[in-house]
Design a protein that fits this description.
The chain is of the alpha/beta class. It has helices at 61-69, 96-109, 124-133, 164-169, 173-178, 183-195, 224-237, 240-248, 281-286, 309-312, 314-331, and strands spanning 3-4, 24-30, 33-40, 46-50, 73-77, 115-120, 138-144, 265-270, 297-302. Helix 1 packs across helix 11 and helix 2 (96-109) packs across helix 3 (124-133).
Length: 332
Amino acid sequence: MDYFISTESFRPVSSISVSMDQIQHKHVNIRGVKLHIAETGTGSSVVIFIHGFPEIWYSWRHQMIAVANGGYHAIAPDLRGYGLSEHHPDLGKASFDDFVEDTIAILDYFQIEKAFLVGKDFGSWPVYLLSLLQPTRISGIISLGVPFFPPRPLRYKDLPEGFYIHRWKEPGRAEADFSRFDVKTVWRNIYILFSRNEIPIADKDKEIMDLVDPSTPLPSWLSSEDLAIYAEAYEKSGFDSPMRAPYKGLHREFTIRNPEVKAPVLLIIGGQDYFLKFPGIEDYLTSGKVREYMSDLQIKTLPEGSHFVQEQFPDQVNQLIIDFLDKQVRSS
């Protein structure tokens, strides 16, 4: 990896006074579904943020304000099925392709010829896929936590039966597990689990929700107000629709031969992100094999960063993002 970024001199909260009234909200008809879109900034260079799970546009609040203050136009949708956006009209057909096609349609709606894309968690996959399908529309990519790698259907076959993705793919398993709690508790438990540095794996006689003791506090960087905003969004959407594409939906065959992400990529990694413990991921990054698919790649690591590094250490993440954007704009 390129280098490590110390967080010792920073508190894990933002020094930016995030003014939510600087962020405008609208609903846009995108491919037959009304998507909620948050935006701020008036710069000519556009940055589109694609969230993961269990998130919404709000998880990018610190970054949106920062890039807007840096002279960029920030756009962050609630993906279809999430937050204030409508669900897929046929949940059984929901897939990652919808997120790719929706992002292209958002570019077209705003008459954006070319943009920077920022993805996190599974949100990085549609970002990478879009760059492979329409490279001329991508100025650069920033991914939090997830490198590009060609999909393998059996990538996680060696993980135990209690692996959270295995459990959530099982019809009715997550629904039965979650139904024991209110929405706020379910969301809180998932966030706490994903904040840890171990892969969530339940014993055979336990469920995923049982991995969190009710007395466990929220991570220090997430306030009760933040929790209330996320919980309200998931009370509206439920969990079935947001989980459909990443965990339960159709996974179409990957047919792109010799894929190579040619756009410049900044990969920001939290050193404590549990994803690093997925089979083969750390070796893929440290061995340099990742550069076979992303030749113009920078990797920056925040050693104490979690899966939610953009909320945990927003100042450092914001600076990395701004530096990358400015460098690409200067060189274009």
